[in-house]
C-alpha cells in the first residue's frame, strides 16, 4: 500500500499543471492533499476526471482558504473531519480515515505568518493536534501525513542560521512542537530511513529558489513507532514532480 501526500497550493490550479500525470507517476493507493483552497463540492468537481479513487474533503468556512482532501482506491472503514475543537475546526485542516489496522490522518498545520503574528495560535494548534493524535493512538496505530509547516532540524532547511527564530516554520516554539510529537512516540519516516539525506519539499517562488534547491523540508509522514518499524518499507520525497511550490512525499507499507 502506497500512501502519498502533497500540498497542492490550490487544487484547481494544480489540475491545470499535469496533476493527473503526477498522480500516475506516484501510483498511490491513497493520496492526501493539503491547501486545496476549495469548498467540498469544488474539490469533487475538480477531480471529476480522475478515475479509480473515492474522494473525501474537508474545507474551511472561509472560501478559497486552507482545506484538505483524501483520494483512496478502497473505501476506508470511516472518514471523519476536524479535531472536535470549534476554534480550530473552522479552517478545514484535518481529515482522518480509519483502515483495518491503522488510522491515516492528513493535516495542514497553520502557518505562523508574516512577522510571526499567528505563532501564539500555532502553539495552541500544536498542543490540540497532538492531544488528538495521541487519543487516536490509544485505539490503533496512526500515520500522520501533510504539511506540518516546520523544518525540524538544521538538515531540513537550506539556510538555518538566516531563518532561525525569524521566519515562520523555523522558530524554536515550532520546533518544540515537533519535538513533542516525536517524544509522544511518532517517528519521522523519511528521517528514520534516510538519517543524513538532504532533500526538501517546499521552495519559495522567489529568486529561483527551487532551481537552486534553496528549500525547506516541511512535509512529513509521521507514524507510531512500532507500526513504522514493522510496516514502512520505504519513504520518498518526489522532487521531480512539479505543479506546486511543494512536492509530494510518500511511504510504502508492507
Annotated CATH architecture? 4-Layer Sandwich
Domain count: the total is 1
- Our measurement of the CA-to-CA distance between the termini, rounded to an integer number of angstroms, reads 7 Å
Number of strands: 14
Radius of gyration: 17 Å
Largest sheet: 6 strands, mixed
- Based on Cα principal axes, name the global outline: globular
CATH class: Alpha Beta
Order of strands, main sheet, comes to 3-4-2-1-14-13
Find the CATH topology: Deoxyribonuclease I, Chain A
Count the DSSP helices: 9
The string of secondary-structure elements, in order, is EHHEHEEEHEEHEHHEHEEEHEE
Structure description:
The protein is an alpha+beta fold. The protein has a single domain, classed as 4-Layer Sandwich (Deoxyribonuclease I, Chain A). The chain is 28% helix and 26% strand. The protein has helices spanning 11-15, 19-26, 40-46, 86-89, 119-137, 160-163, 172-183, 189-193, 225-231; strands spanning 2-7, 30-34, 54-58, 68-72, 78-81, 94-98, 103-108, 142-147, 186-188, 202-203, 215-216, 219-224, 232-237, 249-253. A six-stranded mixed β-sheet has the order 3-4-2-1-14-13. Strands 5-6-7-8-12-9 form a six-stranded mixed β-sheet. Strands 10-11 form a two-stranded antiparallel sheet. Strand 7 (103-108), helix 5 (119-137) and strand 8 form a beta-alpha-beta unit. Helix 5 packs parallel to helix 7 (172-183). The protein is globular, with a radius of gyration of 17 Å. It starts with a strand and ends with a strand. The model has no long low-confidence stretch (mean pLDDT 97).
Amino acid at each position: 500500500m502506497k500512501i502519498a501526500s502533497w500540498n497542492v497550493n490550490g487544487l484547481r490550479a494544480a489540475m491545470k499543471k499535469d496533476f493527473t500525470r503526477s498522480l500516475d507517476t506516484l501510483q498511490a493507493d491513497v493520496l492526501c492533499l493539503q491547501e486545496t483552497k476549495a469548498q467540498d463540492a469544488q474539490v469533487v468537481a475538480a477531480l471529476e476526471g480522475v478515475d479509480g479513487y473515492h474522494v473525501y474533503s474537508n474545507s474551511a468556512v472561509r472560501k478559497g482558504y486552507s482545506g484538505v482532501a483524501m483520494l483512496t482506491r478502497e473505501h476506508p472503514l470511516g472518514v471523519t473531519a476536524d479535531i472536535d475543537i470549534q476554534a480550530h475546526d473552522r479552517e478545514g485542516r484535518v481529515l482522518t480515515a480509519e483502515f483495518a489496522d491503522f488510522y491515516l490522518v492528513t493535516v495542514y498545520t497553520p502557518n505562523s505568518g508574516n512577522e510571526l503574528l499567528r505563532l501564539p495560535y500555532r502553539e495552541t494548534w500544536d498542543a490540540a493536534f497532538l492531544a488528538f493524535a495521541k487519543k487516536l493512538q490509544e485505539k490503533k496505530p496512526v500515520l500522520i501525513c501533510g504539511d506540518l509547516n516546520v523544518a525540524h532540524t538544521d538538515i531540513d532547511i537550506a539556510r538555518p542560521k538566516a531563518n532561525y527564530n525569524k521566519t515562520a516554520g523555523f522558530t524554536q516554539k515550532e520546533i518544540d512542537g515537533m519535538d513533542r510529537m516525536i517524544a509522544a512516540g511518532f517517528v519521522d519516516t523519511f528521517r528514520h530511513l534516510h538519517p543524513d539525506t538532504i532533500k526538501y519539499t517546499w521552495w519559495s517562488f522567489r529568486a529561483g529558489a527551487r532551481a537552486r534547491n534553496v528549500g525547506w523540508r516541511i512535509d512529513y509522514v509521521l507514524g507510531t513507532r512500532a507500526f513504522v518499524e514493522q510496516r514502512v518499507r520505504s519513504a520518498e520525497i518526489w522532487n521531480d514532480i512539479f505543479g506546486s511550490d511543494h512536492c509530494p512525499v510518500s511511504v510504502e507499507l508492507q
